[in-house]
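re: the backbone from monday

yeah here it is again, tokenized this time
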């Protein structure tokens, strides 16, 4: 039997369908892999081995009985710890929710369970999804499987690292300003931020409600399409949920895999390259553009002049919404409760003690910034002005999509940096998301896929953006580029990550 952890989700699903392997075998193979490499990678905060194996056994029995199952039934999956899971701890990477076990499932978890995917566990993340390196988790760093001394991206570094290290074929991430796409770029995986509202946010612990979006983390574009179709669609419990069905993504990925992009207009965003971008990252980006051109795509340059203000606007809108959303963590209703060591026990003092000890420095920094931006006398000058910039960015996208079917850029300016390198410089850390943030401000979908290895031997990412509700375009162009790159590399990036053996990278 081949190593089941090395198979794509689509390939594993086919072997499960034909009963060449069982879901119990596939799930156990991934649990064994986790046991071998987790001491080095630390992608998971909680491993749900018993429930995963129970789900796998149930799927195997139903399949043996001839029941018609979902295409991904029996394929194991990991879930970012910002997504609530009934009976399984959900900490959001924070001490303030340590040990909290939700009494309900997020909508996307309900869909995963209904389809019969064994949930391997919950993945590590920056606390409350605030960060670009997974160094702000209250439970320790996650390490990049390509180089254990480097970051796996953030905030969803755990999901990306789990997929890159073959600890899961599929994972769920969330993307508020790049938290699916940037980790995908630095770990050599595929990450998709769907159109805002196309995947339910019911059951996601909110960071910034107008920006948050759940999506797939995988090793191939087709796998992302399969998972996207599973978790997407309308949810009446989410007031921002779109009525559109989640269909056409798999067909688009299969069509794109033929490598024919005749008539597709690809817009290169002038403002998302140049100064600050690593030469090797730009080199892989330019090579990818040439492959697209060779496949029949028309390459045009577009300008989105207000993208240069996106970072500043984002770091006013996000903290403001976070300040409001995180007010519920007050030591009174659920989660951590810390009483003052001396003096009267009042609501105000309990709240101050709980939040002071329960939140990490980055969360405190953003709450303070957001509260200030929303305060009397500053609301219009800061938060209101940032929302006006957001409108200008949305107009930039609208104009650009008149000239191009998709927009492209490097996903992140650099490859993975070393752990601790930017931890004491918040602005340097924030700049990692300069290319991904505009999509969240506008609500448009985006994908990152590997564009090869930079000069330092680490993965670089290629970002594709499409108009809202046109996610299928991501999958057509992404699958085409993936196929073209596999040919140009003489083999896919999938499988080329360094082995992890005994806790050390070889």
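seq for it, each position gets an aa:
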């Amino acid at each position: 039997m081949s190593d089941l952890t090395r198979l794509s989700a689509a390939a594993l699903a086919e072997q499960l369908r034909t009963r060449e392997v069982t879901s119990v075998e596939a799930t156990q193979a991934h649990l064994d892999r986790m046991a071998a490499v987790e001491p080095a990678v630390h992608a998971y905060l909680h491993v749900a081995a018993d429930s995963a194996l129970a789900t796998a056994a149930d799927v195997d029995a139903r399949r043996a009985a001839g029941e018609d199952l979902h295409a991904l039934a029996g394929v194991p999956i990991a879930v970012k710890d910002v997504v609530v899971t009934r009976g399984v701890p959900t900490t959001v990477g924070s001490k303030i929710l340590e040990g909290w076990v939700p009494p309900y499932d997020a909508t996307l978890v309900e869909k995963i369970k209904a389809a019969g995917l064994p949930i391997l566990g919950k993945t590590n993340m920056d606390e409350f999804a605030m960060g670009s390196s997974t160094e702000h988790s209250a439970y320790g760093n996650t390490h990049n499987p390509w180089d254990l001394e480097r970051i796996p991206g953030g905030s969803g570094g755990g999901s990306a690292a789990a997929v890159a290290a073959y600890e899961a074929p599929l994972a769920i991430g969330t993307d508020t300003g790049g938290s699916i796409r940037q980790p995908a770029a630095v770990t050599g995986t595929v990450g998709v931020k769907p159109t805002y509202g196309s995947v339910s946010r019911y059951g996601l612990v909110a960071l910034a409600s107008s920006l948050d979006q759940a999506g797939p983390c995988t090793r191939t574009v087709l796998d992302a399409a399969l998972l996207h179709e599973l978790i997407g669609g309308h949810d009446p419990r989410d007031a921002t949920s779109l009525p559109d069905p989640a269909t056409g993504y798999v067909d688009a990925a299969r069509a794109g895999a033929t490598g024919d992009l005749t008539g597709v207009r690809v817009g290169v965003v002038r403002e998302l390259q140049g100064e600050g971008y690593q030469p090797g990252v730009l080199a892989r980006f330019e090579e990818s553009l040439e492959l697209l051109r060779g496949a029949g795509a028309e390459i045009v340059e577009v300008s989105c002049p207000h993208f240069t203000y996106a970072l500043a606007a984002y770091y006013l809108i996000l903290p403001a919404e976070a300040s409001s959303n995180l007010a519920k963590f007050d030591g009174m209703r659920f989660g951590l409760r810390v009483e003052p060591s001396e003096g009267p026990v009042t609501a105000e003092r309990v709240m101050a003690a709980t939040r002071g000890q329960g939140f990490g420095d980055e969360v405190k920094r953003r709450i303070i910034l957001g509260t200030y931006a929303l305060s009397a006398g500053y609301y219009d000058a800061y938060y209101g002005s940032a929302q006006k910039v957001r409108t200008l960015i949305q107009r930039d996208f609208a104009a650009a999509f008149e000239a191009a079917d998709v927009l492209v850029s490097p996903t992140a300016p650099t490859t993975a940096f070393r752990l601790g390198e930017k931890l004491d410089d918040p602005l340097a850390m924030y700049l990692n998301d300069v290319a991904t943030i505009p999509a969240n401000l506008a609500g448009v979908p985006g994908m990152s896929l590997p564009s090869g290895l930079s000069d330092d031997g680490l993965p670089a990412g290629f970002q594709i953006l499409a108009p809202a509700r046109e996610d299928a375009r991501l999958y057509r162009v992404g699958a085409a580029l993936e196929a073209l790159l596999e040919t140009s590399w003489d083999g896919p990036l999938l499988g080329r990550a360094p082995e992890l053996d005994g806790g050390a990278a070889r």
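The chain is about 40% helix and 10% strand. Confidence is low (pLDDT under 50) at residues 501-506.
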